[in-house]
Design a protein that fits this description.
With 276 residues, the protein is α+β, with helices and mostly antiparallel strands. The chain folds into two domains: 93 residues, no CATH class; 132 residues, no CATH class. The protein is 50% helix and 9% strand. The strands form two sheets. Strands 1, 2, 3, 6 and 7 form a five-stranded mixed sheet that branches. Strands 4-5 form a two-stranded antiparallel ribbon. Strand 4 and strand 5 form a beta hairpin. Helix 5 runs antiparallel to helix 9 and helix 6 runs antiparallel to helix 8. The longest helix is centred in the middle third of the chain and has 35 residues. The chain is elongated and about 105 Å long. The N and C termini lie far apart (85 Å).
Length: 276
């Protein structure tokens, strides 16, 4: 790593031009490593050694490194896990470097500076290749490609399930109203008005829907741990998500019950009794 932005260092200092191959070995650690190795202590000025594997599988210890700064935690390698403990060493003080990853901040469109980067690298060393040039957003999109595909498929199946549920609710309520035609006719013959019949049917539909939704929410909370690994940025038991889904299902259930309920409220008592 070539350096750390000064606004990301919470204690001590970032790397600078004085950290050369001939100067004392230094390191910057993140907050997670500071809390793990130096709990309730100031790590600035402490000496640490880093174990490295040799080509024969032996563990070699580096020269002591002085901690000169503490930077913020960042995700590394996996967006779903907690930030790991990290230690950064200046590029000038590293003995083995297989490849370099440059991070460049720019105020212009990122793709417009790529030719200038290639030209500058070629001027420094024509044998050095410049590969995998991409923005931070493109990197995140690539890392989340599988999760977003799963979300898209889940959304499609969710909409399909919602449509099937609406059709099922409509059918069940329609059958319930048809089976209670005689009861509804008698109620209306005794003085019940259409608004009361409509409210009665919708009240029963909403009661059944609330019970079913409560059972579904409980089942989703119990099974949340199985999908936690594929959900990024949202808790598996997020209250806003659960309440929004429950509200949507309730609206769909009432909407699917409206047509049978309205049909029941317009039943003519004499016609219904004659059919019975």
């Amino acid at each position: 790593m070539l350096g750390i932005w000064s606004d990301l260092v919470f204690a001590g200092r970032p790397f600078n031009e004085n950290d050369t191959a001939a100067s004392p070995k230094v390191a910057v650690i993140n907050q997670r490593l500071a809390a793990t190795r130096f709990p309730h202590q100031n790590p600035i000025g402490r000496l640490v050694s880093v174990g490295m594997y040799s080509g024969y599988g032996d563990i070699l210890s580096t020269a002591p490194l002085e901690i000169v700064g503490v930077c913020g935690d960042t995700l590394y390698g996996n967006l779903h896990e907690s930030p790991p403990p990290q230690l950064f060493i200046p590029y000038a003080q590293q003995t083995q470097v297989r490849r370099l990853t440059y991070m460049i901040r720019t105020q212009v469109a990122p793709e417009t500076i790529v030719p200038a980067l290639r030209k500058g690298l070629h001027a420094a060393d024509p044998a050095l290749p410049l590969v995998a040039v991409r923005t931070q957003h493109a990197q995140i999109d690539e890392d989340l490609a599988d999760e977003r595909l799963l979300v898209s498929l889940s959304s499609i199946f969710g909409v399909l399930a919602l449509v099937l549920a609406s059709v099922g609710i409509y059918g069940v309520m329609g059958l319930s109203v048809a089976q209670r035609t005689r009861e509804i006719a008698i109620r209306m013959a005794l003085g019940a008005i259409s608004r009361q019949i409509l409210a009665m049917v919708l009240r029963e539909a909403s009661s059944l829907s609330v019970i079913a939704i409560a059972l579904g929410v409980g089942a989703s909370i119990l099974s949340a741990r199985f999908v936690k690994s594929v959900v990024f940025g949202i808790a598996s038991s997020d209250p806003i998500t659960l309440s929004s889904a429950a509200g949507l299902l309730l609206i769909v259930a009432l909407g699917a019950s409206w047509i049978p309920a309205r049909r029941a409220s317009h039943v003519h008592p004499m016609d219904a009794l004659r059919r019975e």
